[in-house]
Each structure stands twice: as structure tokens, then as C-alpha cells.
Design brief:
The structure holds 2 protein chains of 2 kinds. By secondary structure, chain A is an alpha/beta fold. Chain A has helices spanning 33-41, 61-71, 87-97, 116-126, 151-154, 158-162, 169-174, 187-193, 209-219, 248-262, 265-288, 292-307, 315-327, 335-349; strands spanning 18-26, 49-54, 75-80, 100-107, 111-112, 130-140, 146-150, 183-186, 222-234. Helix content of chain B is 44%, strand content 18%. Chain B has a 7-stranded parallel β-sheet with strand order 3-2-1-4-5-6-7, sandwiched between helices. A 6-stranded parallel β-sheet of chain B has the order 10-9-8-11-12-13, sandwiched between helices. Chain B is globular, with a radius of gyration of 21 Å. The chains are: A alpha/beta, B alpha/beta.
């Protein structure tokens, strides 16, 4: 979203003034913020600055940060929003304030391992065409206990990422694969991603800051996935970016499957339209940077989303459309593609398809977002 | 009298390109007292034919696929009938073609594969389609950069003894004798400005958009004091070319840029330019930087590839991070700020460095040593040994 804090035109995004920035957004994080800040201060490679954007915390988060700032071995630049922006807009604001050539993102409740920053920045330094690198993480409980599971596996993306050193833009277009706190981004990609487009905040299918950044970074360069675990990712009931652990995952899968049979078709239509708009925005950024091939890829996926909006035509026409999508490979050739074909097919033939084209204005951002298919 | 060694350079085509130019330069500079030289373009003919010396036997196979059986047999027959000793392939498709010939028993000649792969940043893997021919159909591997050699040893699993690093060189003669073209007059560039030349086919890897954005970042006065001539194929990727042209208009700098298509007189164009520029995303060479240096051109280029890394501290040009248009704009501004004398001195240092380290004869002696070693003419060739030791 374009906020008053993040309106810097892309071509005028200021030049880097230091090597490494950490962008951190906070909101009522007093329980864990000190642990995070201490783990950043203990990095083998220290950042030059931490840019903190507080989204109107009501606890003593800001006081704890200011206390840390007095002792920190690097600059701590904290700013409190005048009104609450929400995490995606808040990150846009924080990113716009960063001075670094490389920018690592942080969440307030995690614990970084000492080698995290060094590993990510080494990877970016090694190859200047790499615009973003992200890692895996260990899941930890509210008290820091090891839950014995990796983030990628909990999000059902481990198999996809471990077999690919380079993650292409079409994968990010089809699925959310990254979590902000595992990422470091080259300034050029951040510049291309700002300002965040309004389309990200579409309530039918919001796109978070980390997915948007990944999508743009892959479209204007190369994104690498590091299978190493470089931080403890805390799982707790209050977090915004949740992961599903234990019995939650099969339950969520069940709910997602049931929704294919029961949710109004209009909801699916609104989701497809929202995705199409977001992908077209990313294609626009790629085009602007001269990455024409990548822009075409994203535009094609966006067009496929538009084609999946269910019309009032006959069942046969709808099935023909799906078959054509499969024939040209528009669904992708992986498990997620098959799931999407199955979902579209069921939605096309199931009875009671009432309200098929209505716009859904209000829908809860579901935790099933993390298992979203193409 | 000893029989001369018969060597055939094999490329996909004779069209203008970095790998093809390297093959032509090696073909032209192999020692004629000890070598008889052939050149085979397995797919298409091209402008580089005219650059080959007249004593080089040329064949164009016009194969349509790796498995083009008729062409495969015709190639094998020719190689056998001529008694070719060494086949020196450039490019991975060509390497597979020769490896297939060897696997089918059509040819027995030694096979040297010269790897110019420039997309190692995207694909460090080595699937069966590469490993099998490299292990069973290649007798010696030459990488033009140390990353490639490391990849061949660590990822492909080739024995170190088979792998050599041979940096690209440049045939100075081509640049010493080329008559200068008056670019201002030929392309109506006006007077009193600095004429920059970029030699690169319009392909996404060459990243013209970053250069265009860099020019757009300059102040209006700086923009008016330069003109850019882009020489390179506009048909290699038509969609990319159209995107670039649209971008020039969008950035309102189209009046500063002339695209002149592919040419076979690059040395003459360079001789007529004031400076070189090159904005590629990723390269293994790139040869064009050596060509700028051989032409006494100061240059601004992205730091990618073995040659760019090797010359970055030599004061022969300004090198910036690939894809960073702001850094490239700074580089262009620095070049514009230099006096004519300073630019000339930079160009002269480049020329001197080529003579000392990148002259084609230095490079070709290494290649000849690899041939000798393969054919058992020397037990341990010094040139090949040195190049092996140089792998980072």
C-alpha cells in the first residue's frame, strides 16, 4: 500500500549508505523483543543499523528497544507510527527507511543463530545477480523449547525448496514460500518492490510483504533458497505469521478441502481476481526494470487466474476451460497444480453454485493461506 | 618430415558471438608449422566466416538437432577421411553432438571441450544429460573461468588432470590493422559528445535495460554529452529487443542511442569510438572487454566473468556491480568527468595489459599444450600444467 511514509518513487529510492540493515516491525512484542535484539547483537557479522517501525504498541516494547539502543554496537533507528498500519504496510515503511546495500528482515519474536546474517550476506555478496536469499528455521515454542520440526516442513514446502537452489518467479506466483524473518534482500530488489501496491491489501486474498518482496526479487533477479536452519522461529498463539503444527495441519487441510465443496463460488472468484491484480503489479515492476521475460511469465499466470473466474456458462464450457488450462500447462505440473485442477473441477460441476460472481468484500485471512495452491 | 596435427574447431554456428569469436581466434592463431586447421559450424554459417584465415578448411553441416543422424554420419565420414586428430568443441550443444559421435563409434579423434557457459549463477547442477557426455565423450575440459573449472571437478566429477583453465585471449592483429569508422558521421551523432560503443547481441543476459536506466539517471547535461551506439543482433530475441526499444522511449533517451544491428567490423567500430560500455548480468569471459582494451578504449562495464575480475584493479576501466543501474550511472559520470588525456591513458594501459597477459599467442600456446598432452606428444605439458594450477 502506498502510505505517506512509503511514497519514495522507485527510481529515487536513495542509494545505499551502509552495508547491512535489519528491518524490524514491532507490535506489543515486549515478551520476546529483548531476546531477539540480543541475538542480533551477538551476530558474527553485525549489521550497520536496525530500522524499527513500531505499529503503536500498547506495552513497553518501545521502552525496551530504547534501552537496548543505548548499549547496541550498531545504530538503532526506531520510529513509532501515528496510527496502526498493519504488518504489510508497516514493513513497507520500515524498508523505505533502510540505508543498507543488503536488508535482512526480522520478526519480533524470533531468535537468530549467530551465523544467520553472515550466511545470508555471504550468499548475496558471492553473486551480484542474486537479489534475495532465504533460509529454513527451527520451530521453537513460546519458552524457546525446540519443537523438533523445521519451518519449511511445517509449511509443506521442504520438498519443493530442497531440490531447487534457485526459486523462479512462477513458484512465488503460485504459492507463498517465504517467511520474512528468514530473508535478506538486495537493495535493488527492495527499490523495485516499493511502494507496495494497493492490491496487496485485498481482503479476499491479501498478499503479505514477504511474498510480495520474494515475487519482485525473483522477477528482477535470482532468489536462492538455503536449506540451513539459521534461526529459531517461535510458534505461539499471538503471532501474525502462524505455522500449523501437530493436529492443526490436517485440520486446516480438511477445512480447505471442504471449502472447495461448500464455499460460495464468488469467494473463489474474488481470490482469483485479487491474485491476478497482484501478479500484474509484480509484472509491471519487472517490466520497468527491463526483465521482460519474467514479466511475461507473471502476466500469463495472472491471465490464468482471470480465466478461472467462474462464469455463468454451461458446465461443459467450464470443464473445457479447465482442460485447456491443463493442456497449456497453466496450472503448473506439480502436486499443487493437481489440487488446483481438482478444486476448479469440483467448483465447476457441484450443484448450488449460487452467487457465483458476487464480490466478497469481507473474508477472514485464513491460516490455510499457507497451504494455498496455484 | 613430421605430419602436422589436424585440428578442427567445432561450433554451432559462424554467427557473431563470444564463444564463436574465441573459436575463430584459436583457429587463426594455431601454429601453422605444426597444425593444419579445420572449422566446422554444425548448424549455420555466418559473418565470422570472413574472419577466418584463408588456409582454414571450413564446413557447414546444417544439422537440425543433436540426433540428426544423416549429418552425424556425414560429419564422422569427413573427420575420418581427413584424419582429424583433435576436435575442439565450443558450447554445450556442440559438445553433446561430438560426444554422441564418439559414443556411436563414428569418430575416434580426441575431443577437447571448451566451456563458455555464462549462466552458472542460475544452474550449478549437472544432470545426466551433461555428466554422461562429459565423462564418456570428452578427453579434455577447458573452462574459460575458474568457477566453471571448479564446477567441472566438484559437481561433474571430472578428474583434475582433465580440467584446464584457459582465459580468453584476443588477436591483437585484428585490432592493429582495423581502419577506424567515423561513428559521428556514419550514425549522425553530432559533434562535441563522447561516443560510447556497446558490442552485445540483444539478449536478456546482456542486460541493456540496466545501461539504459543508468543513462536515464544522469543529469540532462551529462546525457547530452554522450551518445551510445549499440552493435549486436536484434533478431536473437525479438521480444527482448522490442522491450528495450520501448524502454528507450519511455525513459526519453531514444535520441541518444543508435542500434546498428550485427556487424563483422567490430574492430573498426571500436577504433572509431571514444569509450566502451558493457552491462551484462553474467558472463564467463567476457571477451568484449579484452577487445575494448585491445582497441585502446577506456570502458565502463559490469564486473562479471574471469576477465573482468582479472583486470578490475589495473586501472584500465571502471567496473561496477552487475544490474546496479545507479552504480553504472556513477561509472558513466566518472568517465564523462575524465579529461581526454586521462581517458587516453586508461585506454593505453588496457592495450598494454592485453599485450602482457591476454595476447592470443599466450592463450593459444596453452591450448596447443593441451593437444600435445592428449596425443602423447609431451608427457607433461608445461602450459596445461600451469593452467591447471591456476584453478581457484
Amino acid at each position: 500500500m502506498t502510505t505517506e511514509h512509503a511514497t519514495t518513487p522507485r527510481t529515487r529510492y536513495p542509494r545505499a549508505q551502509c552495508e547491512v540493515s535489519v528491518a524490524l516491525c514491532t507490535l506489543n512484542g515486549s515478551r520476546w523483543i529483548e531476546q531477539l535484539l540480543q541475538s542480533i547483537a551477538a551476530q558474527e557479522l553485525l549489521p550497520d543499523e536496525i530500522v524499527i517501525q513500531d505499529d503503536c504498541s500498547e506495552d513497553d516494547t518501545v521502552e525496551l528497544i530504547e534501552k537496548f539502543a543505548g548499549l547496541a554496537p550498531f545504530a538503532v533507528r526506531v520510529e513509532v507510527n501515528e496510527r496502526r498500519l498493519g504488518s504489510t504496510a508497516n514493513f513497507a515503511t520500515a524498508l523505505a527507511r533502510c540505508h543498507g546495500r543488503f536488508i535482512a528482515l526480522a520478526d519480533q519474536d524470533d531468535v537468530w543463530y549467530p551465523n544467520k546474517l553472515r550466511r545470508l550476506i555471504d550468499e548475496l555478496t558471492l553473486d551480484p545477480t542474486v537479489t534475495m536469499v532465504f533460509s529454513d528455521a527451527d520451530l521453537i515454542g513460546p519458552d524457546g523449547e525446540d519443537l523438533g520440526q523445521r519451518l519449511w516442513d511445517a509449511r509443506l514446502i521442504g520438498r519443493t525448496l530442497r531440490k531447487r537452489a534457485v526459486v523462479p518467479e512462477e513458484l512465488f506466483a503460485r504459492r507463498a514460500l517465504t517467511t520474512g524473518c528468514t530473508m535478506a534482500v538486495r537493495r535493488r530488489a527492495v527499490a523495485a518492490s516499493l511502494p507496495f501496491p494497493e492490491a496487496l491489501e485485498n481482503q479476499a486474498a491479501p498478499m503479505r510483504h514477504d511474498r510480495w518482496l520474494s515475487l519482485v526479487a525473483a522477477a528482477v533477479g535470482t532468489v536462492r533458497a538455503l536449506p540451513d536452519s539459521l534461526l529459531g522461529f517461535r510458534v505461539h498463539p499471538d503471532q501474525e505469521t502462524g505455522v500449523l503444527v501437530g493436529a492443526q495441519l490436517p485440520q486446516a487441510l480438511g477445512r480447505a478441502a471442504a471449502a472447495v465443496f461448500t464455499a460460495p463460488v464468488g469467494q473463489s472468484n474474488a481470490t482469483h481476481l485479487a491474485r491476478a491484480n497482484q501478479l500484474e503489479a509484480a509484472a509491471g515492476r519487472a517490466h520497468e526494470m527491463g526483465d521482460f521475460e519474467e514479466a511475461v511469465t507473471l502476466e500469463a499466470i495472472a491471465a490464468h487466474h482471470r480465466s478461472r473466474v467462474q462464469s455463468a456458462g454451461s458446465v461443459l464450457d467450464r470443464l473445457r476451460g479447465i482442460a485447456e488450462g491443463v493442456r497449456v500447462g497453466a496450472y503448473g505440473w506439480d502436486r499443487l497444480g493437481l489440487v488446483a485442477v481438482a478444486g476448479d473441477t469440483v467448483r465447476s460441476v457441484r450443484p448450488g453454485r449460487g452467487g457465483q460472481c458476487e464480490t466478497v468484500l469481507h473474508s477472514e485471512p485464513a491460516p490455510e493461506n499457507q497451504i494455498e495452491g496455484s | 618430415m613430421l605430419r602436422k596435427m589436424k585440428v578442427m574447431m567445432v561450433t554451432d554456428s559462424l554467427q557473431v558471438g563470444g564463444a564463436e569469436q574465441v573459436a575463430v581466434d584459436i583457429a587463426n592463431s594455431l601454429d601453422r608449422d605444426t597444425h593444419q586447421v579445420y572449422f566446422c559450424a554444425t548448424r549455420t554459417d555466418g559473418l565470422l566466416r570472413s574472419s577466418l584465415k584463408s588456409d582454414v578448411e571450413i564446413m557447414v553441416l546444417e544439422r537440425s538437432a543433436t540426433w540428426d543422424l544423416l549429418k552425424l554420419l556425414a560429419f564422422g565420414k569427413y573427420v575420418r577421411s581427413e584424419g582429424i586428430d583433435v576436435l575442439h568443441s565450443h558450447g554445450r550443444g556442440t559438445m553433446r553432438f561430438i560426444a554422441l559421435c564418439k559414443a556411436l563409434g563414428i569418430i575416434q579423434a580426441q575431443h577437447v571441450f571448451h566451456d563458455h557457459f555464462g549462466r552458472l549463477h542460475l544452474d550449478r547442477s549437472a544432470g545426466r544429460g551433461l555428466k554422461v557426455p562429459l565423462h564418456h565423450g570428452v578427453d579434455a575440459y577447458i573452462g574459460v573461468e575458474s568457477r566453471l573449472c571448479r564446477w567441472a571437478i566438484d559437481t561433474v566429477g571430472l578428474p583434475e588432470a582433465k580440467v584446464s583453465l584457459v582465459r580468453s585471449g584476443v588477436d591483437l592483429e585484428r585490432f592493429s590493422t582495423a581502419p577506424a569508422i567515423n561513428l559521428r558521421e556514419e550514425f549522425d551523432l553530432g559533434e562535441g559528445n563522447l561516443v560510447l560503443l556497446m558490442v552485445a547481441n540483444f539478449r536478456p543476459q546482456k542486460d541493456h535495460p540496466t545501461l539504459f536506466r543508468a543513462i536515464a539517471e544522469l543529469t540532462p547535461a551529462q546525457q547530452e554529452s554522450l551518445r551510445l551506439v549499440v552493435c549486436g543482433s536484434t533478431t536473437a530475441d525479438p521480444a527482448y529487443f522490442e522491450g528495450c526499444m520501448a524502454m528507450l522511449e519511455r525513459l526519453k533517451i531514444d535520441h541518444l542511442v543508435r542500434t546498428i544491428g550485427v556487424r563483422n567490423d567490430a574492430p573498426s567500430l571500436m577504433a572509431g569510438a571514444d569509450a566502451g560500455v558493457f552491462s551484462s548480468k553474467n558472463e564467463s569471459g567476457p571477451l568484449v572487454i579484452l577487445e575494448y582494451m585491445a582497441s585502446r578504449l577506456p570502458f565502463v562495464a559490469t564486473e562479471t566473468g574471469e576477465i573482468a575480475h582479472a583486470v578490475k584493479d589495473e586501472g584500465v576501466g571502471i567496473l561496477t556491480e552487475p544490474r546496479d543501474y545507479l552504480a553504472l550511472a556513477d561509472g558513466l559520470a566518472a568517465l564523462l568527468d575524465m579529461t581526454a588525456e586521462q581517458r587516453a591513458a586508461m585506454g593505453e594501459r588496457g592495450r598494454q595489459l592485453v599485450i602482457e597477459e591476454f595476447e592470443q599467442h599466450v592463450v593459444v600456446r596453452q591450448v596447443e599444450a593441451i593437444y600435445d598432452q592428449l596425443l602423447g606428444l609431451s608427457s607433461q605439458s608445461s602450459g596445461a600444467k600451469e593452467s591447471n594450477l591456476a584453478i581457484g
